[in-house]
Request: fold
Amino acid sequence: MNTPNYNFTIAVFTEALVITGSYSLPLYRRVSGALNSRLHRYLTLSDATVAPLARPQQLQRVPQILVDWGESLLVATLDEPDPPPDFVAPIVPREAQPMMFFTVAFALRGDFARRPDRDLSAVIDEMTDDFIPITNAQIFPLAGGTTISHHFVCVNRHRIQALYAVGAPTSATPLGEGEAAGAPLVPSARLAPPVVPTAPLIPPVTPPVPIPVEPSE
Reply:
């Protein structure tokens, strides 16, 4: 009896490309679990499409493509099969922490499942998985373009440039203000005060002192 494959439809976002296709797994698990297993260097996608990130209309269809997961910034699940009847999801105490992640090409906002008894910085520092699962994700291309929403996205931990907890209090912003109160998802840059150049100081010119001349006899 052949073991059935479970076909997921995923989208892989790199710095320059968006690649979609069917990702087949012999065992049912989340896409993040398959990526973190490190079984293969390349993801094999069938019935795939590939397009430039900045020009999605220039889409090309290919029957199969190999994608280097190490070069991916984000991997989104577009469609997933139903779990088998005997599948039991692991139950681990988690709380949803809204987060912002920044990569070279995207800002991403979504819910990160964390243990409530651990400090967020400690959780990130001790993480060994290559991909961080995020739910209710909104993806903002930094070069401009339409916001992309997906229920489940994996963020490549090695390609994260910065991250912060949304709604966390700071010394300048009390809890309840800023993003926690509905401010824009991607904060705009604050303008620095204008720099007024000063002219170089020139020492004052002292007029010459007249030299008295004695009258001749």
About this structure: Confidence is low (pLDDT under 50) at residues 172-204. DSSP finds two helices and ten strands in the chain. The CA atoms of residues 140 and 147 lie 5 Å apart.
